[in-house]
């Protein structure tokens, strides 16, 4: 399994360039794609060397599915959408990442895919920051986050 490396997690530079940090969940870094046309989260497991979902062990795959569902619920709680698209393509960025995209019947790419639809329409800073705060609040799992923090402090 390539995800068992002891190397530190590093976010692919292309993902870093195209996204804004929202939160770190138990497994994944949660990012907002900087394209105001589509409310779009990207989940990146914070483990080095992952390219495919099956690079994760069974517990990691289960955790990833939990966090995908959490991202879907988070988006539904913050933005209106008719459909949620979930995908892990990795054809351009090899690092394992999962897209969770809130779609509306009136979005510019409907009903086609958002990938390759044209240049991104970046959020205005104030709108982006407001959305990131709303996503962070909606996506908070206070009990899970508290347990994770307590485990970290116990391990130190």
Give a written overview of the molecule:
With 156 residues, this protein is α+β, with helices and mostly antiparallel strands. The protein has one domain: HIT family, subunit A (2-Layer Sandwich), CATH 3.30.428. It has four helices and five strands; from the N terminus they run αβββαββαα. The protein has a five-stranded antiparallel beta sheet with strand order 1-2-3-5-4. α2 crosses α3. The longest helix has 21 residues, at 58-78. The two termini are 27 Å apart.
Count of helix runs:
4
Low-confidence stretches: none
Helix-and-strand structural type: alpha+beta
> What is the C-level CATH assignment?
Alpha Beta
Shape, principal axes of CA atoms? globular
Number of domains: 1
Give the tally of β-strands.
Answer: 5
How large a portion of the residues is in β-strands, by DSSP E? 15-25%
Give the CATH superfamily: HIT-like
SSE string, helices as H and strands as E: HEEEHEEHH
The residue-averaged pLDDT reads 90
- What is the CATH topology assignment? HIT family, subunit A
Q: Report the C-alpha radius of gyration, rounded.
A: 16 Å
Strand arrangement, largest sheet?
1-2-3-5-4
Instruction: Report the end-to-end length measured between terminal Cα atoms.
Output: 27 Å
Sheet having the most strands:
5 strands, antiparallel
Helix content: 25-40%
What is the second-level CATH architecture? Answer: 2-Layer Sandwich
């Amino acid at each position: 399994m390539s995800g068992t490396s002891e190397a530190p997690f590093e976010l692919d530079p292309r993902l870093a360039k195209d996204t804004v940090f929202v939160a770190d969940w138990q497994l994944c870094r949660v990012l907002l794609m900087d394209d105001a046309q589509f409310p779009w989260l990207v989940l990146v497991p914070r483990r080095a060397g992952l390219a495919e979902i099956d690079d994760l062990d069974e517990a990691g795959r289960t955790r990833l599915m939990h966090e995908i569902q959490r991202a879907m619920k988070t988006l539904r709680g913050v933005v209106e959408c008719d459909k949620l698209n979930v995908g892990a393509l990795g054809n351009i960025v090899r690092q394992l990442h999962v897209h969770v995209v809130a779609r509306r019947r009136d979005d510019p790419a409907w009903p086609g895919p958002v990938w390759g639809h044209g240049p991104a329409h970046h959020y205005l800073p104030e709108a982006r920051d407001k959305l990131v705060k709303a996503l962070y609040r909606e996506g908070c799992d206070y009990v899970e986050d508290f347990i994770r923090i307590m485990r970290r402090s116990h391990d130190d």
